[in-house]
Structures are given as C-alpha cells and as structure tokens.
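re the bet — no i am not wrong, look at it urself. input seq straight from the record:
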Amino acid sequence: MRPAQTDYDFEGYDVLHVKDVSRTDLGGTVIYDEVIPFDAGSHTPPNGTNGPTGSGGRITGAVQSRVVRSDNTKTLIFAYRFRDMTFFPGTGPQKKGSQLVNVEIVNISGFPKTAFPVEMYVLDKSQSLGAETLTGFYSGSGGFEFNTFLTEPQGTTFFEVLTKASRYRTGQYLSLEVDARGNGGGQHVVNLSRIAVPA
C-alpha cells in the first residue's frame, strides 16, 4: 500500500521504462561503482530426512550501486541493480506463492528532499537479457520501496534515479527482505553497506 502523499512522496510521477538510453539524460561518467555481496537465509541440502530439495531457504547474490554524472544535466544519477543471484529453495512446490525463495521487499533510504528525483527510470528488459525490472515509489521516509518477486539468476536491470544532487555519500542505505519459507525456513532481512545516495 502506498503511503499518504507527503512532501517526499513520488505521487504524480511515473517510473519511465527506457528502451533507448541515448534519448534520455542517463548518459555520463561513472564516478562510483561497487558490487556488494549478500547471503540471506539458511539451507540444508537434501539428506534423506528433510525433503527432496533440503530444508530452509537461502539466496546469495549482490547489489550493484553506481553513481553517474550526467553529461546533459551535470547532476548525479543513482543506479541500483541485483545480479549474480543463486537460489537455494526449501521443500514444497516450487512456484510463486508457495515455497520458492525470493527477494520480496527492497528499501533504499537516505535521499534528502534537496535531491528530490528529477526522473526515475527502469531499463527495458532487452538491455539486460533475462533480468527482471524493479519499479518502486519515492516514500515519506526519503527513499524508495519495492514490492517485488525476484527469482531470476540474472537479477534485475538498473533502476536509475536522476537527481538534483552534485555529491554523494555511502553507507548502510539498502535493506532487502528474503522470503524463504521452506521447511525450517522463514523471512530474513539483510542490510547492505557501501550503498551510494545523494549527499
């Protein structure tokens, strides 16, 4: 459910699906690019007593945090994507809504009002074969929230935010919730450091 409209809310704006980056302000110089690994959940391989796929559930992967200085606007673009994903499912039917492990919720915080996004973009799937897209909204907490169902090993395309910012900072600004409800599994929250946001 979306929050009530606030000064920070992204109400009234669209997340633009981009098929041709050259027709946007997204081109520029990369000034920060980090790949931050994560490991969420727990999984015991099959051993004859805990089912054909083992017990629990676990996801390993990485989040790429990138900052680009736009050639056109000279301000900063903040880009995020999931990549290099491996899924260790728990027991039960492996289908959506059941025991298939997935990244369920993603939160990115730390966007000050002074850097309120000018535009938000999701790259078209064709620019990252097999990858899912993330769409979210700017929330009252000064960040973004994504309700997703990420299950693809390729991860996602970049979610890119063109801002008014000219500087960036890094820290623990991204959290993700993994749903791994197999036998002995549960829900797990991971907080990642080295995530870039506007300064």
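see?? The chain has one domain: 15-198. told u. also The CA atoms of residues 104 and 149 lie 5 Å apart. so pay up
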